[in-house]
Task: structure prediction
Amino acid sequence: MDPEASAALPDASRARFQDAVLAFQSQCFWWWDISRPITTRTAAREVIRQLRLHGGKSGWRAAAELVRCL
Result:
């Protein structure tokens, strides 16, 4: 297991990822338990992946901003 993947995200980054999940919930995260916090880099990468897959142009923009938080 990659230790970097399970590394914790800083609090400010967690909040940005959580905001993205809430903003794109119906479009990208219909299956995601929104009460589950984004705490690891693995979960953060999954958020970025889903935004790119299902978020359209605005999802791509949000993902580009979130990549900077990793």
